Amino acid sequence: MHAQTTKLNLDSCVILSRNNYPLINQLNVLSEIEKLQKTNLNSNWLPSISGNAQASIQSDVTALNIPAIPGFPTIIPPNKDQYKFYLEAGQLIYDGGTLQHQRHLYTYQTKADQLRVESELYKIKDKTIQVFFNTLQLQEQMNVLNLTKKDLEALLQKTNVAYEAQVVSGYQLNSVKAEIIKLEQKILELQSQKNSLLNILARLIGKNISNNTQLEIPD
Q1: CB-based contacts of 162: which residues, under 8 Å, 6+ apart?
Q2: CA 172 to each of CA 121, 136, 152, 154, 176: distance values in angstroms, whole numbers, following the listed order
Q3: Cβ–Cβ contacts within 10 Å for residue 179, how many?
Q4: Whole-structure pTM over 0.90, yes or no?
Q5: pLDDT at position 3
Q6: What angle do CA 130, 134, 135 make, to 5 degrees?
Q7: CB burial readout 130-152, b (16+ within 10 A) else e
Q8: What is the rounded distance in angstroms from the CA atom of residue 3 to the CA atom of residue 119?
């Protein structure tokens, strides 16, 4: 599939055009995203532990000026600094099927996105097939004209011999030459059209294709 390629078949063109299309990478990306989403959902069933700490520092506290009473304990004002720390542990036991439905939703969404990408890839495949067969048609027309040209060149040699022997006129000789010139012009025209299609095919498959490349007729 480089510049010196002389043979090219339809199957390789279809595969190369698919792999060359930018959206092909999205198929793998979509699958990876679905896996990550489902992994995150599964983590909801794992035990969870949360902690919290709290501290408060007061510049002053409430105080009661109550004199000491014999026989009763002395009232001590609370400490100005207070600290709290606690842990909470939990685990999901039943969710009513919510997570299962969410997993199905991720799967359906991924399939829908993949089908959208496949639809675009199918358009590229269809375009590749059209360009391939249009090019192949021009190639076969050129082959027929080249065979006809060989026949006319052989006829020209015979006519030239007959002309030198004064068996045929110069008009007959020039008529054969004119037909050959017409064929050569037609072949050049078809070759130009073929080259244009080969350039389109090269862009589709992402490879260089030389102008002398011959397309293989599919089975």
Answers
A1: 168
A2: 57, 35, 12, 14, 7
A3: 15
A4: no
A5: 45
A6: 115
A7: ebbeebbebbeebeebeeebeeb
A8: 31
* Helix, coil or strand: residue 68: coil
Q: Where are the alpha helices (DSSP H) in 21-97?
A: 24-42
Q: What angle do CA 123, 124, 130 make, to 5 degrees?
A: 90
How far is 26 from 28, CA to CA, in rounded Å?
5
d(CA 82, CA 56): 5
Distance CA 181, CA 175 (A): 10
Q: How far apart are the first and last CA of the chain?
A: 21
Angle at CA of residue 64, ends 58 and 67, nearest 5°? 140
Mean pLDDT for each 10-residue chunk of the chain (219 residues)? 67 91 71 68 59 66 59 61 68 63 76 83 91 94 95 93 88 92 95 92 91 90
Residue type, 208: N
Asked whether the beta carbons of 57 and 93 are under 8 A apart, the reply is no
Long-range CB contact pairs, 4-7, < 8 A, 24+ = 4/210, 5/208, 5/209, 5/210, 5/213, 6/210, 6/212, 6/213, 6/214, 7/213, 7/214, 7/216
Q: Which of 125, 139, 135, 126 is nearest to 16 (CA)?
A: 125
* Residue type (1 letter), 18: R
Distance of alpha carbon 109 from alpha carbon 31, whole angstroms: 11
Measured distance CA(110)–CA(130) in Å, rounded: 30
Cβ 209 vs Cβ 198: under 8 Å: yes
